[in-house]
Design goal:
With 342 residues, this protein is of the alpha/beta class. The protein has 13 helices and 7 strands. Helix 1 packs across helix 8 and helix 3 packs antiparallel against helix 8.
């Protein structure tokens, strides 16, 4: 189901609570609303969880981040007790697999975002900000890595895209508990959200004249056409090639992943995909080269970077393999045939 949304107006407006599906509000509020006896303490923790001091690099302080992620784990444990969002695991395993693995992607994301800085600084529509970035987490699931990114990079605007309703409701509850105001949740399939524009329908002469008269009337009345503009902005195509960086973790193999993620990335931006050990990542990239080129990615410039995270299970020799991420720079617009509808 597609939730009607208002797209980013670059850095000026970011409506973090506008995207909750109506039928999921009761579910979300029933799980995340504090009891009367704890409302004051909850409010206090939310105000400091992720809204604390921000360093010059745009990252939040370690103390506020720690509080923030503890709040996330609290909500995840609460929801998991009623709804099977993740496989059974201890709190320590949750932290390692969800939070630590997500934070390990930050250096690669910082590098990808840095390449967009000069473009944003020259953008007249940036509201005076020079350190913001637009990120979309495709197939966000339980909100990671998107929520971790939003917590550690408060000046970035992060969209969490997920098609399963209960997970969208959870992410709303988690973002609220973490005190994040730079997050929005869009409940939709990637194939729909990044769909190419549909061709304009042919209008009869009578209809064309009626539209022209309406436009003339608006011009005479001094109307700025805000209503029609809002309708256009609410179209799912507003996501297509609208983001500086797309991130994905545990979503699909690279050929499929390229098709459903690169259409979200603007030319000059990048896809950062969390992957397994280097050998398997290299194999995925070699198979996906044609798809990457078709979607506007720089095949020759694909990088496979080691991240500060390791496989959960040790191998036969007792060691754990280092995980990687695949970075694909986008150098041209995606073919309008993609993504194909499921």
């Amino acid at each position: 189901m597609m939730v009607r949304f208002r797209p980013h107006a670059r850095a000026r407006e970011f409506h973090a609570r506008e995207f909750r599906p109506r039928e999921l509000r009761a579910l979300c509020s029933s799980s995340s609303s504090p009891s009367p006896s704890s409302s004051s303490s909850t409010s206090s923790s939310q105000s400091t969880a992720c809204g604390g001091a921000i360093s010059r690099s745009g990252s939040s302080s370690s103390a506020s981040s720690s509080m923030c992620f503890e709040s996330y784990l609290d909500v995840l444990e609460e929801w998991n007790a009623r709804i099977a969002l993740t496989a059974p695991m201890t709190r320590s395993e949750m932290k390692s697999r969800h939070i630590d693995d997500s934070l390990a992607l930050l250096p690669s994301l910082d590098s990808a975002m840095a390449s967009m800085t000069s473009t944003r600084n020259n953008d007249n529509d940036n509201g005076g900000e020079t350190n913001f970035g637009l990120v979309i987490d495709v197939g966000s699931g339980t909100g990671m890595p998107g929520l971790a990114i939003a917590a550690e990079r408060p000046t970035w605007r992060v969209t969490l895209l997920e098609s399963i309703g209960k997970k969208c409701a959870f992410m709303e509850a988690a973002a609220e508990a973490m005190g994040l105001d730079n997050v929005r949740v869009v409940c939709a399939r990637a194939e729909d959200a990044a769909a190419p524009p549909k061709p304009e329908p042919k209008l009869s002469k009578r209809k064309a004249k009626a539209i022209a008269r309406e436009q003339d009337k608006q011009a005479q009345d001094g109307s700025d056409g805000a209503e029609s503009n809002e309708t256009a902005q609410g179209h799912p195509n507003a996501h297509r090639e609208a983001y500086d960086v797309c991130v994905a973790r545990a979503v699909a193999a690279m050929p499929t992943l390229a098709e459903i993620t690169l259409p979200f990335v603007r030319v000059g931006g990048a896809l950062v995909a969390a992957k397994g050990p280097r050998a398997s990542a290299e194999q995925e990239v070699s198979v996906a080269s044609r798809a990457i080129a078709e979607l506007g990615g720089d095949v020759d410039g694909v990088r496979i970077l080691d991240v500060a995270s390791y496989t959960g299970n040790a191998g036969a020799d007792g060691t754990r393999e280092q995980l990687t991420c695949v970075v694909v720079n986008k150098i041209s617009s995606s073919n309008s045939k993609y993504p194909r509808r499921a």
